Amino acid sequence: MRAVSGALLVAGTTSDAGKSVVTAGLCRWLARQGVKVAPFKAQNMSLNSMVTADGAEIGRAQYTQALAAGVEPRAIMNPVLLKPGSDRRSQVVVLGRPVAEVDALQYGAHKERLRGVVAESLAELRAGYDVVICEGAGSPAEINLRAGDIVNMGLARAADLPVIVVGDIDRGGVFASLYGTVALLDPADQALIAGFVINKFRGAVELLEPGLDRLAGLTGRPTLGVLPWRMGLYLDSEDTLALDAPRADAGAPYGRQVLRVAVVRFPRISNFTDLDALNCEPGVVVRYAASAGDLAEADLVVLPGTRATVADLAWLRERGMAGEIVRRAAEGRPVLGVCGGFQMLARSIDDEVESGAGAVEGLGLLPARVVFQGEKTLGRPRGRAYGEPVAAYEIHHGIVDVEGGEPFLDGCRVGAVWGTTWHGALENDGFRRAFLADVARRAGRDFTPAPDVSFAALREATLDALGDLVEEHLDTGAILRLIEEGAPAGLPVVPPGG
After folding, report:
1. Residues involved in catalysis
2. Beta pairing partners, 167
3. pTM, two decimal places
4. Which pLDDT does position 159 carry in this prediction?
């Protein structure tokens, strides 16, 4: 491919429309053409995050997009990360470090400073890479938020970025949502909307053609491709909408050769990407649980990370799930706590930082005490467990003081209850197999982990598949022209209501 330089913004009609997937696919496709490409998301609201090699916290999706691009993930690829702790308050992470806890109204006071951080980060990326593929957030047509926008059309206008809009046809109403997205924008914003991509289509594309022609006639903008539905292409997700997506094992019957995992779906569940490696194991069925009954048949119950440890522990008790977990432990049935889930398993929690609740009684299943500190721990630790090497990452305010039990990574184990603050441990193939074999033995199952599953190889295969979808189903020539030349001049204004 000839030398290419420029940038593009991938927007979407809704959250979970496919922006992250299209961005990752474009990054992988361009990287395979020899283009030095980087992802960028100016502002991300997500409880799934990752730690870069230099100790900065960024959105998990941007971390994976950097892997798709074949470049080292950096804080400037996601300069602003919002981590909700309740319906109204979020932690603000800037260039990988937490700077404030604010509500929605207070956040507005930070916008001008953050606008500068975003502009400088994008400029640095554009100076260091041939192409930058930017991802929007939610919808660019959130007209109530347009004045302070720094991630959708506000960014596109500031940096003169051409924009493509992704719509998820699986939700229904894709033509109305694509048309309505353009029509709700003011003329200056509309001038940067250069085309559409339809995502998750099932069936014959020919059936769409009358609608595509009509959409082009109404908006003056082409559809640059239709991406087909592919089961199993699970990119690291940004929010819990992904937990509602259909899985290949949905409704699968249980047998003795199947290992059943129930993951507690906390209201503020975070880093549930920890469980993606289990989903990749043949014979492991992962389901999310919101009631005590959902835990009854599980061979392993996982308490995952959470942005609100004390509040979600109260939720666990209100639902009767805490009692069920304690009963399981007494019966020797396996329970794993990760980060916030580990903190809940401790004897006590002292939290004057995250919830302000002070001293709270934990579930008491592990000999540990937790004290929350203002400084957030961010790291990429390494260790061993079950005789296998483990590389992981940690993101937490709660410091766990282990007072007994058998060592397990940085935490401990008592009987069939394990706890660790390390995220990503299950992505280590040897450790995952050894841990699952131990769980199966304790649960009395005949399950044997597959000896040849490589989570890293499966992730690479997924990223390659996304690159293939871009190459095979998008008008890559038109996309390259947009990257290099920007949005075409003279695009028509679409009035609301047509």
Report:
1. 339, 423
2. 198
3. 0.92
4. 97
